[in-house]
Amino acid sequence: MTHQDKHNLLTMKDIVKEGDPILRTVTDNVAIPPSDEDKQILNKMMQFIKNSQDETMAKKYQLRPGVGLSANQLGFNKRMFAAYLTDEKEQLHEYAWINPKIISHSVQMTYMPYGEGCLSVDRQVPGYVPRYDRIKVRAYDIEGQEVTVKLKGHVAIVVQHEIDHLNGIMFYDHINQDNPFELPDDVAIKSLY
After folding, report:
1. What is the DSSP pairing of strand 68-70 with strand 80-86?
2. Which of 37, 146, 162, 182 is catalytic?
3. Measuring CA to CA, how many Å separate 109 from each of 8, 121, 161?
């Protein structure tokens, strides 16, 4: 890592907080192949997520741990996100995706029993967030190659959360306003854990 890179790390102060209009913006598609600038932004986003999960780095830079980050959470009107997490089988998933789109999804839904959080939201928001249990996503990777991936469970939830960001939707928009722990009764839905 060069001297300059060290000071180029994203920190919590780079993250846009709820209330900023960019988080309610439907982001613009990114040109394919991606520009060097777009690749650089995506790489920095991925590095932030990895740093936030690394105890030493997180402590040093006071990072809140995260599993995903979308470009508009950094103030960029760009349709791309980074996600880095393990699934229920401890398999690692690392995605830096451009112009992602859910092309199909299951009828069955799921939710995180302890709710969802967001790096742009500095408060606890109690309630269940219904998500599709399985999704199929088409996107472009950092080199501009088209990819189509099937995801389920926790990884599918995270990717839906990030794609929502790119559509100007916050996770708590899905929570039942009258009763945060009430689930939709017209679909098959079960807790992830």
Report:
1. antiparallel
2. 162
3. 40, 24, 14
Strand order in the sheet with 80-86: 68-70, 80-86, 92-105, 134-140, 146-152
Q: Look up the CATH number of domain 3-191.
A: 3.90.45.10
pTM of the model as a whole: 0.94
- CB atoms under 10 Å from CB of 108, counted, come to 13
Omega prior to 33 cis, within 30 of 0: yes
Strand, helix or coil for residue 110 = strand
Question: Do 30 and 70 contact (CB within 8 A), yes or no?
Answer: no
Beta-carbon neighbour count of residue 36 at 10 Å? 8
Whether 162 is catalytic: yes
Sheet with strand 109-111: strands edge to edge: 131-132, 109-111, 189-191
pLDDT along the chain (193 residues), means of 10: 56 96 98 97 97 96 96 98 95 98 97 96 96 98 97 97 98 96 91 89
Spans of all domains in the chain? 3-191
Query: Which residues make Cβ contacts (< 8 Å) with residue 46, sequence separation at least 6?
Result: 82, 84, 94, 96
Q: Is 133 in contact with 156 (CB distance < 8 Å)? A: yes
Residue-by-residue DSSP string for 20-32: -GGGGS-PPPPPS
